[in-house]
Amino acid sequence: xxxxxxxxxxxxxxxxxxxxxxxxxxxxxxxxxxxxxxxxxxxxxxxxxxxxxxxxxxxxxxxxxxxxxxxxxxxxxxxxxxxxxxxxxxxxxxxxxxxxxxxxxxxxxx
Length: 110
Prior knowledge:
Mean pLDDT: 92
Shape: globular
Number of helices: 0
Number of strands: 9
Strand content: over 45%
Number of domains: 1
């Protein structure tokens, strides 16, 4: 689920990821020069990553983390992540979201 808050110019994400797996989204059509967010489900070691991908393969961690995340373990094998980031973070490696414009996105999962 993705929900924008236009008053605070913040985008909220909720991702439900099976434990011992990961899911990521990218703001672009491919993994080439793409801002990405990844959620890694690993019980109490779960985390999220602010990434920048330059091509296919494991993306590098963005130099400035602009994604805030909390997570809960439902004890049934699913981790629920709640993340937020500003529409425009000012970070050159982050995609600046614009009001009333379509966003081309990609995803990867394991």
